[in-house]
Amino acid sequence: MLYYQSNKTDFLLSNFESHVNLPNEMSRKYNETRLFGYCLNSEDYFRNEAIDEDCFSALKKQNIDLSGVFLALNLNEHSAELVIDPLCQFNIFYYSDGTKFAVSSCLEALSKYVALKDINVTYLYDQIAYQSPMRGETILKDVFYIQFDDISYNQSSRKEFTFVDSHPLISINRPDYDKYDHFSFSDLKKLYAQRLNSRANVVANTFDKVSLQLTGGADSRLAVSSFSKFDNIECYVYGNGESQDRLIFEEIIKARNISPATNVRFIGQSLSTPYRIVKGLKDSNFLKLNNLNTYMNGPIPGDAKYCKITGYYGANISGGVALPPSDTSSNARLKNIPEHLFTYHDYVEEFSQRNNKLRPSAINDLFYINNRGKSHYAAHSIAENKNVASIDILYDFLNLLLVKKCPYSDWEIDKNAISIDLIYENDKALALFPYDNRAVPKYRLFEDIPLINCFDGYRFQSKKVKDFDVVRPQVEFENYGFLVKGSEFLSTQEMLNLSELNEIAKSYDGLSYLTQQADIQANIYLYFLLAQKFLQS
User: Fold this and answer.
1) Is residue 291 within 8 Å of residue 383, measured between CB atoms?
2) Alpha helices in 274-356 (DSSP H)
3) Which value, in Å, is the radius of gyration of the alpha carbons in the chain?
4) Which of 132, 286, 340, 379 is 20 to 30 A from 279 (CA-CA)?
5) Count of CB atoms within 10 A of residue 166's CB?
6) Which among 432, 440, 431, 439 has a CA at the least distance from the CA of 457?
7) CA-to-CA distance for 353 and 445, rounded, in angstroms?
């Protein structure tokens, strides 16, 4: 028998009953067909809503062609079927002891349901030592998240996931990942550009106002190239007349007749107090302990028909990703740790060997998607995707194929050559506009474009530009019971319990080398201790 509980944004599914109250008013349901997160196709936009079975069937059939960070679930009294976004970026956590299992989008709920309290020191070590990869690990011992490889390859999954995946009560839909294998790079470019324009059309017609960050970089330009024809679009960028990003922004909006935002309405608050840190950890499912600095941690101010196009697109079309280096001698944080304690070496080697027929940039790409690197799916984006306060039209499985089939060098891919080609599909002038620090080599041959080094070290002169006004979200911070009254005024050093840290470090050799570093103690460990206290309270 299946036991299922949900609310508007989260679910928990298990094959055993637990008499506990789950957070955020999650309640028991017996039948439900619902989409969590957000999903875009060529005609519709879904977000945290009940859907009918015809819609569920369509999502299942079209899965490889969809964009977004979502999970669609169809539950009846006998079984549950899951449709996960094609890149598997929606948070799905699982636990199994080989007999019992629990699957949830909320780590806190899963922790309470299964009564799990033990902290996973391997995950903590990953976060402190090299910040990536997380390799499917979570802050809770024996709890993991579903990775892209679990769904797309189904060949190297953990035994815990294999048990869930093969259980007769659950069916996990696998997209048709071979559908576009025969497409050429040129065909993929055209198809991808068409999809972006279709998604932009859906978003622009769904919301009264659409806000885009425009730094001048290849990823933000790519989004703008699909949106710029609509009259309800506004762009912004952080910085003033001393910032090259801001100066580039000013030149682009003037040249392209794009409206600037009246203010920046989507920004998080610095997590500078224990209350805010705990809320940030809770909202983000305790992921990314090292970059929970600012994120969208409150409701969208004003009109609910206002949408942000997120600034985190993923590096899979823009380059800039790499496998973790095996040589750690030049890293001051890691150089004193014995090599045998670097537990990612075996993981990276196995991953590389399994994909050894791919070019290096494509291997890096897959590694990045699987492990959600430092910038990808970052702190504020985690919370925004859950609350659907932002949308990313660029997420697409085709990105992986574009890198795999790109005829250019890996170096050119790393310098955003693919994105430049894609922008050119929509807007030649926008693709060729000069900007700083995005060098494409002079021998780079654009399709139908004269030979030109259009990105070689161009800099704008500083000028007086007023920074955008910032409207911060209104946030109600819960008074968590384990935080004493007034603790929000305590400094980081006063919050730390170094003896407690040392006890934790003893349980894992690698941590003992890191506890001696003050910057580590004052940052990651503070977050970790608060997460530990929250999960154990």
Assistant:
1) no
2) 274-283, 344-354
3) 23
4) 132
5) 10
6) 439
7) 32
Closest CA to 230 of 426, 506, 367: 426
Number of H-type helices and E-type strands within the chain: 21, 15
**Selection from 472, 476, 524 nearest residue 496 by Cα:** 524
Structure tokens at 467: 């920074």
Alpha-carbon separation of residue 48 from 36, 56, 296 (angstroms): 4, 13, 17
Distance CA 116, CA 345 (A): 28
Interval 254-305: pLDDT, tens: 888 888 998 887 666 667 677 777 877 887 888 767 666 555 656 655 656 8
* End-to-end Cα, the chain, rounded Å: 30
Q: Are 210 and 381 spatial neighbours (Cβ–Cβ below 8 Å)?
A: no
Which residues 6+ apart lie within 8 Å of 207 measured at CB? 232, 305, 306, 307
465-482 burial: b if 16+ Cβ within 10 Å, else e: eeebeeebbeeebeebee
pLDDT in tens, 123-150: 877 776 665 667 888 989 999 999 999 9
Query: How far is the C-alpha of 95 from the C-alpha of 160, rounded, in Å?
Result: 7
Q: How many Å apart are CA 368 and CA 184, to the nearest integer?
A: 23
The number of angstroms, rounded, from the C-alpha of 428 to the middle of its chain's C-alpha atoms is: 30
CA dist 180 and 187 (Å) reads: 10
Q: How far apart are CA 384 and CA 395, in angstroms?
A: 15
Nearest to 90 by CA among 115, 76, 114, 73: 73
The model scores a pTM over 0.85:
yes
Q: Is 36 in contact with 48 (CB distance < 8 Å)?
A: yes
Query: Quick check: 487 and 274 in contact, CB under 8 A?
Result: yes
Structure tokens at 236: 């912004």
What one-character DSSP code corresponds to residue 488?
A: G
